[in-house]
Amino acid sequence: MDPRVSELFEAAAGAHKSGSPNGRKTAKHGNKKCKNRSAKYPKASNNPPYLPPEAEEGNIEYKLKLVEPTQYRFEHLATQMKWRLQEGRGEAVYQIGVEDNGLLVGLTEEDMEASLQTLRRMAEKVGADITVLREQEVDHDSDESQRIAEVLIRKVPDDQQFLDLRVAVLGNVDSGKSTLLGVLTQGELDNGRGRARLNLFRHLHEIQSGRTSSISIEILGFDSRGEVVNYSESRTAEEICESASKMITFIDLAGHHKYLKTTIFGLTSYCPDFAMLVVSANTGIAGTTREHLGLAMALKVPIFIVVSKVDLCSRGAVERTVQQLERILKQPGCNKVPMLVSSTDDAVTAAQKCAQSPSITPIFTLSSVSGESLDLLKVFFNILPPLSNSEEQEELMQQLTEFQIDEIYTVPDVGTVVGGTLYSGVCREGEQLVVGPTDDGMFRELAVCSIQRNRSGCRVLRAGQAATLALGDFDRSLIRKGMVMVSPEMNPTICWRFEAEIVLLFHAKTFHKGFQVTVHVGNVRQTATVEALQGKDELRTGEKAVVWFRFIKHPEYLKVGTKLLFREGGTKGIGQVTKLQPRHPSGSNTA
C-alpha cells in the first residue's frame, strides 16, 4: 500500500483540531474558476470508435450479429452464454454490433432486431432474462444508420436464491447516509426532516439524536428485468428475497468520530464488496470524510461517492463540493480517476468500469427529498457486477467450513443466534461445528439448527455469504464477537503473539515498544501491546516496520496474510499478519 495515503489521516486529524471543513487552507484556490469539466471526467456518452479487445475470460461477450443462426450454431451460442453467466456469477453483458477486436461496426435496424430476438431465444434456453441497457448509433459514412446495443443477461445460479453484493455506507455524521438508505429501501422520498431513516435505527438514542451508533443491515432487491424490489407496497423481507434475482445488502456504518471503532469493525468484519462514501453538498468534505475514505482505500475496498442534499444548496455549491472531491481523489496517495455520473449512459459505464478498475471512482449528485438523480444510482446498483469470479468462489467452497461471528442474539423460542460471514466452505442445516477460541484457547462442539439469509430461510450457506445461524440451547455466555465456527477436521491456529508488517499512517509522536493499540483483523477486535520493533527503536508517521504484537485479554484465531488495521486515539496504521506464535507467553499450550 502507498504510505502516502497517510496524508488523508493527517488531514483528518488536522480537521478535528482546527474545525475546518477540509482541514486545509482554501483561500489560495477559492477564487479559481473551474476549467472545462468535460476534460476532467471520463464521459461514457462520448462514443469511442472501438472497445478493448474481447477477453477469453470474464462475463463480457462481443457479437457482430446473430441473424438466423443454424441449429448447430444456436446450440454453441447457448453453451457460450452459459459460460459467460458462470464467469459473472449469474450476470453477463453482450455487446451487439461489435467485432471481437472491439471495433464498433454497428447493425442496421432490421439486423439489430433479428440479433436481439436470437439473444432472447438463447436466454430462454438457458433460463435467463435479458435487459437492453442502451443503444447507440455509430458514425459511419453511409446513408443507412448503424446501431450497437449493450444487453444485460441475468440468471440466478441453480445453487443460489439470488445474486448478492455487500455495500458499506461511509461518510461524516449528518451527511444523509441513513436517510438515503431509507429512501432506497422503503421506496418513499424523505420529508426533509429525516423521516425516511427512522426504520433503520436500532436504538432509542439513535432516534432521539438522529445519529447512527451501531451497524444496521438493509436490503434492496432487483428482479430479473432490473426493476426495483423494496419494502414499498407493504412487502416483507421474505417477499423481497423471493421476488429479487439480485440483492444489494447495505451495511450502514456510524459517521461520528466517537463511533469510529464500530465503523472500522464493519469494514473489516463484514467483508464489503464496495464502499459508498456519502458527502453532504452543503458542508463538503468535513469531519470523518477523509478518514473514512482513507480506511476504505487502506483496506482496498473499491469506492464510489454520493454527493447528497443537492436540494439544499445552489448548483455552484454542488460544483465546489465535486471539485473538492476531485482534488482529493487525484492526490498522490489516492491516485483515483473521478467520473461524474449525469446520465443513464454514464451510470451503465460507471458500474462496469468501477468493477474492472479500482482507480475509477464514480461520483453521483442526488437528493433524498426531491429524488433528483436517484434513478441513476439505482441503475448503477442494478448493473454493478460481483468482484470475485466463479473460479475464486469455487476454490473457497472446496475448503473446510469457517464462519466468522460478528453478532450474537438471544431469540425467544429459538435460543442463541449468531450473525456473520461464511469465509470458506459450505454450511448446512444440522451440521456439527466447533466454536472458539475460549479464554483458555479451546473449542466447543455445537450444531447448526437453522440458517437465515436476509431474514429469509436458507438450507445451504456458501463461501462469501452473510447469514444468521440458530444454535438452539447453546450457552450464549460461551460465545463472543471475534470467535469462529469451524469444521472439526480443521486444526485452527490460536495465538497470543503475532508478527505483522505495518505502515504507520498517522501518529502525533513516536510509536515504540510498550505502546498499546486496538487491533482489527477480520472480525477480531482486541487491545494488543507492541512487544518489539525489528531493527528499530521507534516509528514515525509514514514509516514501515515489522512489529510483534501480543493480545492482552485472550487468544484469537488468526491466519497469515490477513489484513490488519490498528488504532489508538489519533494513531492509525495498517499492515499484514506475517507470522503467528501459537503459545501463551507463560509457555502453556493454548491450542
Automatic annotation (TrEMBL):
UniProt-annotated stretches for the region Disordered: 1-54
Keyword annotations from UniProtKB, A to Z: GTP-binding, Nucleotide-binding
Alphabetized GO MF terms: GTP binding; GTPase activity; translation elongation factor activity
Domain Tr-type G: 162-390
Record PROSITE patterns: G_TR_2
Highest taxon in the source lineage: Eukaryota
Compositional bias of kind Basic residues: 25-40
Any Pfam family matching the protein: GTP_EFTU
InterPro entries hit by this protein: EF-Tu_GTPase, GTPBP1-like, P-loop_NTPase, T_Tr_GTP-bd_dom, Transl_B-barrel_sf, Transl_elong_EF1A/Init_IF2_C
Stated family: Belongs to the TRAFAC class translation factor GTPase superfamily. Classic translation factor GTPase family. EF-Tu/EF-1A subfamily.
UniProt protein name: GTP-binding protein 2-like isoform X2
Species per Swiss-Prot/TrEMBL record: Carassius auratus
Gene: LOC113113090
